[in-house]
Amino acid sequence: MNWITGMLAVAAACGIVSCALAGEAKGPSPLEMVLANTKALDHPQGNRPPLVLWTPNLPGADDPNIEKVLAELKARGIGLMHRWGGDPEKSTDGWIKIGLLQKKLGMHILVDGTGHVHGFLGGDDTGHVDKDGKRFRDKSFNWQPPCPFAIQPRFEAKRKVYEAFAKKYKDAGLTVDYWMADFEFDGPNEWNDGWAAAKQCTVCRERIQNIDTDFLAWQKAARDARTAMQREVWVQPLKAAFPAIRIGNYGMNSHDGFRYYKDFYEKFDPNLPHKKDQNMLYRPWAKEFEPSGYTLSMPVVYTWGWIFDAYTFPNKQYRWFYNMLLEATSVAKSTPAGVPIMPFVHWTTTEPPKALPEGFEPMSRETYEELLWHMLLRGCDTFAMWSPGPETAVEVQPVQKVYNDSLQYVDFLDKGKPVLFDVPAEPGTVISALKLGGKLLVRRTDFAGNTKPMEVTIDGKKLSVPAAPGKCSLLELN
Predict the structure, then answer these.
(1) Residue 379, Cβ density class (10 Å: 0-12 exposed, 13-18 middle, ≥19 buried)
(2) Contacts of residue 78, Cβ cutoff 8 Å, sequence gap at least 6
(3) How far apart, in Å, do the first and last CA atoms of the chain sit?
(4) What H or E segment, with its residue span, contains residue 424?
C-alpha cells in the first residue's frame, strides 16, 4: 500500500483531498481502508450501478498511480465521487483529468454535489415575518429554517453555479452519469418547532389556509418550497446538460405516505399526526420526490440509535431489521418502474445515545447482510454507504460482500420483478423474491427459529419456500 500513501501526499498538495485524508502517519486513510478491506468482484458487474462510498476521496489527478487506483476501484465495483465545491472555474480541472481517465477505463462518473447545496438560504431576508414586520427564524434546528415563501429569490444565483459546473464537464467531453447530494439542512422544515414558528409568521398565515389547525397544510407548504428549490436550482440545469443523468438526494424517494425513521436533528411530537407502532411514531410524509424531478431514489436505511428502544421485540436483532426493512419496503413498493433505488446505508449504530439502554445489543453483521439481501430482492439496485472515516474499514466489508455476491444473479437483478413485500409485525420468517419468467430468486430469513417450509402465494400460485440460512434459493414457479 506504499504507492497509495505516496499519492495521498500529492493529493494534499493539489487540494483534491483534505488534510485529514492525506494524513500525517495517523493510520490508514479511508481510501486505504477501502482497498484493504474489499476484493475484486467474482462475477461480471454488467450494467449494475456501482457501489457508492460516501467517505473516501481520491489522490491527486497528477499522481502517476492515479489510473491504477481507478482500476482497483473499478475491479471492486466501487464508484468514485467527484466533489463539487468552490469556484467551478478553479475547482474542476483536477476532477476533469480524473474523469477523462474514468472514461478511458469505462467507469461511470459520479458527482457529490453537497459542497454547494448547503448554506445559501441563511440571512435575515429569508426569515419569517412577525406581526411587527421583523424577520425571525425557527431556532429549533441547527440551521434555523427560513420561511418557505422567502427563499425563491436566492435560486437563480445558485442555479448558475450548477450550470457552470456542468458546462466545464461538457466542454471537456465528459458526461455525468450520477449526481448525488447529502442535502438535509438549509431549507424549510415542518417538524420540531417549525409549525409553531409558521403560526407566528404573517406571510405563512396569509398563504396557508387553516394554518392554526391543519398541520398537513403547513407540511405541504414547507415541502413544496423545498421541492421547488431542488427542482429549479440543481435538478433542472443538470438534466438540461445531461439528459440521461441519474440525479438523487439523501432521503428523497417515493414512499407509501409515511416515513419510518427520524433524523438526528428531528424530535418526535406525539401531538402531531402519526401512526404508532409500539414506542415508534411513523410520521406522515409529503410527496416530494416526483415533483422535484429526481431520477435516482435515495432512501435512508440507518441503524439509528433510538431504534433499539422504539420496539419491544424480545429478539433484539429484529428490532433493527424490522424498522430498516419497513423504510426500504415502503420505497421499493412505491418507486416508479425504471427509477433506480440507491439507499444510503450504515451498519454500526448511528447517533447512539450517550448512555446505552440496558440490555443494548447492536445490529450484528449477519443481520445487516440479511437486510441488504432483502433490500436487493425487493427492488433496490445498489447502495450508497455512508460512514465516518474511522468506521470505513468495518462498514465497507459487509456491503461490498453482498454487492459482490449478488452479481451471480445479475439477470434477476436487472430484469426480475419484486413480488414479496411483507414485513412481519412480530419476529418470524421474512421472505423476499425476484420473479423472472417462471423462476424465483428467493431470500428467506428466520427470526424465530423456524426451519419448516413456508408457503407463499405469487401470481395466484402457491409455492413452498424451504429454509436456507444465509443463502438465496432458485425456485420454479410451477
Answers:
(1) buried
(2) 34, 38, 50, 51, 52, 53, 400
(3) 52
(4) none
Q: How many whole angstroms separate alpha carbon 30 and alpha carbon 282? A: 35
User: In whole angstroms, what is the distance from residue 68 CA to residue 256 CA?
Assistant: 44
Strand partners, 180: 112, 248
Locus of grid cell 436483532:
317
Strand 81-83 versus strand 110-112 pairing type: parallel
For 115, phi then psi, to 5°, come to -60, -20
pLDDT in tens, 173-189: 999 999 999 999 899 99
Partners of 249 in the beta sheet?
181
Phi/psi of residue 349, each to 5°? -50, 125
Which of the residues in the chain have pLDDT under 70? 1-26, 59
Amino acid at 136: F
Instruction: Give the number of other CB atoms < 10 A from CB of residue 413.
Output: 22
The distance between the two most distant Cα atoms of the chain, rounded to a whole number of Å, is 72
Residue 341 DSSP label? B
CA distance 403 to 78: 10
Torsion of CA 98, 294, 52, 5, to 10 degrees: 40
In this structure, how many other beta carbons lie within 10 angstroms of the beta carbon of residue 288? Answer: 22
CA-CA-CA-CA torsion for 390, 81, 74, 108, nearest 10 degrees? 160
Report the half-sphere exposure of 134 (CA within 13 A, side-chain side). 2
Question: Could you give the CA distance from residue 252 to residue 450 in angstroms, rounded to a whole number?
Answer: 36
Beta-carbon contacts of residue 388 (< 8 Å; ≥ 6 apart): 55
- The answer to whether the CB of 274 falls within 8 A of the CB of 342 is no
* Ramachandran bin of 192, using left for φ above 0, alpha for ψ from -120 to 50, beta for the remaining angles: left
Ranges of beta strands (E only) in 146-256 are 178-181, 246-249
Tens digits of residue pLDDT in 363-409: 999 999 999 999 999 999 999 999 998 899 999 999 999 999 999 99
Contact status, residue 126 vs residue 146, Cβ threshold 8 Å: yes
Contact 118, 86 (CB under 8 A): no
Instruction: Quote the cell numbers at residue 304.
Output: 439509528
Q: Which of 384, 465, 478 is nearest to 437 (CA)?
A: 478
- For CA atoms 444, 447, 450, 456, the dihedral sign is negative
Q: What is the DSSP letter of 232?
A: I
Q: Cα-flanking dihedrals φ and ψ of residue 433, to 5°?
A: -155, 150
Cβ pair 369, 291 in contact under 8 A = no
- One DSSP character per residue, 37-90 reads S----SS--TTPPPBEESS-----TT-TTHHHHHHHHHHTTB--EEE--S-HHH
Residue of 190, 385, 206, 396 whose CA lies nearest to 284: 190
Rg of the chain over Cα atoms, rounded to whole angstroms, equals 23
